[in-house]
Design a protein that fits this description.
Layout lengths: L11 E7 L3 H7 L2 H11 L2 E11 L11 E4 L4 E9 H20 L10 H19 L7 E5 L6 H7 L6 E4 L7 H4 L5 H8 L4 E4 L2 H15 L2 E2 L5 E3 L2 E7 L6 H5 L16 E6 L8 H14 L7 E6 L11 H18 L7 E4 L5 H9 L3 E4 L8 H8 L8 E5 L12 E3 L4 H13 L2 H17 L2 H20 L46
Parallel strand pairs: 1-2, 1-5, 2-4, 5-6, 6-7, 7-10, 11-12, 11-14, 12-13, 14-15, 15-16
Antiparallel strand pairs: 3-4, 8-9, 9-10
This protein binds GDP-alpha-D-glucose.
GDP-alpha-D-glucose binds next to helix 12 and helix 13.
């Protein structure tokens, strides 16, 4: 079945771990919205895991491949995982090795040989199934850490189409990345892409440094990175949101507890993940109530924390830790008619989010590490322009590189976060409006559509570069001797010229550069 084929316009083939019906993607939020929008406007195919886990016996690549036509000229192609694959590829290597290490949590990583073998096996199986569906003009866009080896597998099978990779999570410092036993294999797999897109300038610097340290990669004169006999581009494309969807959304229903009773709401919306810094956030709120007693009864912290990856070991304690912490703070400061922390261990309906954000005087987003943090952008876009609230944002969220007019805090510094709450509550309306206006310029200037358009156009040009006659690899400077790791300029110091620019950025973004 040729899904979405159209004369003159190649399909976009998007591959991500999870795939969803284009009509339901808007409800899911995050990047699913962006992918669904892209596939509604261009013919394409979305390929990935169906979310189903089946018995281990005789799973077949082709017989289990399910292809559905969806909205417009696009389709979905999905495969189930076996129980063993789910354990080793998904729970194991993806979420117990790559996720913790890339979020700087080496202490939580479980380096088990079976995990890597399972990770490679699933990527090989996906590549085999996908290969049969690829057409000559397709542009292939692979998403996220679950699927790093996919391009290498496709190339080995003879696929010559443009293949790009976008990593939604942060790239750790090189020294942390090098702790992964299979770091050379991962470097080799990454080098098979024509373009790697990352969220931030710091991520670009870290990845280039990692290529240098792991496999003697080097920056070439044309700005590409040479790794083995491959040349690839590594650039930043910060994920955005569809700002208008939040600006224009109309109120759904009154909130059960609005801020009409005089208490100002501080809102947090984070998947229940150790990277999101929730215990530190709760402690900061407790410290705020302790340090500034005049605000007791006048504020509430509403934290929405939908559960996630509950079968991964590292996630089992977070829920209990937060319940204990919120119970302690509520017990210590609460009154019969005032509960300081509303902790909601469930997902909120998507059409309520805008009202929740808009009715909150502060958006409190303090991950210890985050690729971007779309929630902070959604919060800003939902505000009333005449009386906007204030975002407090972790300096370790990728969004902090763009949202410089938020109150930027160190999420490990409970005292600083407690003070930031006070600053935000006391901020004059004129300053709130000025900050909001500048933040919205940035959010509107690089939205989801700009993000996907600029990535895809850069991917096409990167693939054209690859197709041109290949000259011998010429490094920009002699590769630095391995024995003196600090002798050469650091990757970050070369970034303005090579790779640090943000493709497709509009003028409005340059103020935050
Ligand atoms: C990964 C990276 C990067 C959240 N709770 C509810 C809900 N959400 C929606 C939000 C938002 C999305 O999910 C979450 O996106 P984030 O960016 O905040 O975080 P991750 O899920 O960790 O996403 C991250 C992102 O990929 C994109 O590249 O920014 O760094 O970790 O859209 O609104 N939606 C509903 N109910 C909830 O309770 N309906």
């Amino acid at each position: 079945m040729r899904v979405g084929a159209e004369a003159g316009l190649g399909r976009i083939v998007v591959i991500s771990n999870r795939v969803m019906d284009l009509r339901k993607a808007a409800q899911a939020g995050g990047v699913a919205v962006a992918i669904a929008d892209l596939l509604r406007t261009r013919p394409g195919l979305w390929f990935g895991w169906s979310g189903k886990v089946v018995g281990n016996s005789d799973i077949s690549d082709q017989a289990d491949l399910r292809i559905q036509k969806t909205a417009g000229r696009s389709g979905l192609a999905t495969l189930p995982l076996t129980e063993e694959e789910h354990r080793d590829y998904y729970l194991g290597y993806s979420n117990s090795v790559l996720w913790p290490v890339f979020h700087n949590r080496l202490d939580l990583a479980q380096f088990e040989a079976d995990f890597y073998a399972g990770y490679i096996r699933v990527n090989q199986r996906f590549a085999r199934a996908l290969h049969a569906l690829i057409q000559p003009d397709d542009i292939i866009w692979v998403h996220d850490y679950h699927l790093i080896p996919l391009a290498a597998e496709l190339r080995q099978a003879g696929v010559t189409n443009p293949i790009g990779f976008y990593l939604h999570i942060p790239v750790p410092p090189s020294q942390t990345f090098l702790a992964i036993p299979e770091h050379r294999e991962l470097a080799r797999a990454l080098a098979a892409y024509d373009l790697i897109g990352l969220q931030t300038r710091a991520d670009v610097a870290n990845l280039i440094q990692f290529f240098e340290d792991s496999v003697s990669g080097r920056i070439l004169q044309d700005g590409r990175v040479g790794v083995f006999d491959h040349r690839l581009r590594i650039e930043r494309f910060p994920v955005g949101i569809d700002a208008d969807a939040f600006v224009k959304a109309s109120p759904v229903a009154p909130l059960v507890q609005s801020n009409d009773d005089g208490a100002q709401r501080i809102v947090g919306v984070d998947r229940l993940d150790y990277s999101k810094g929730l215990p530190q956030k709760f402690r900061a709120f407790g410290r705020f109530l302790e340090k500034y007693p005049q605000y007791r009864r006048n504020v509430v912290l509403s934290q929405i924390a939908p559960p996630t990856r509950e079968s991964v070991e590292a996630y089992t304690d977070i829920r209990q830790a937060l319940e204990a912490l919120s119970g302690k703070i509520n017990g210590m400061f609460g009154e019969l008619d005032w509960v300081p922390i509303h902790y909601i261990y469930r997902s909120a309906p998507r059409d309520r989010l805008r009202d929740i954000y808009r009715s909150s005087r502060i958006g409190f987003f303090t991950p210890l590490r985050d690729g971007m943090n779309l929630v902070s952008k959604e919060y800003v876009a939902s505000q009333d322009p005449r009386n906007p609230g204030v975002p407090i944002l972790s300096r370790f969220a990728g969004a902090a590189e763009q949202l410089v007019d938020a109150l930027i805090v160190n999420p490990y510094n409970v005292e600083e976060m407690a003070d930031a709450i006070k600053t935000a509550l006391e901020m004059e309306k004129s300053e709130r409006i000025e900050r909001y206006t500048r933040l919205m310029e940035v959010i509107r200037g690089y939205d989801t559509a700009t993000w996907s358009r600029s990535f895809l156009s850069r991917l096409e040009s990167a693939a054209e570069e690859r197709a041109r006659v290949v000259e011998p690899l010429t490094p920009m400077a002699s590769p630095r001797p391995k024995s003196t790791p600090t002798a050469a300029p650091s990757a970050s110091s070369r970034l303005n010229k090579f790779g640090g620019k943000m493709s497709g950025a509009t003028g409005s973004l340059s103020r935050s550069e």
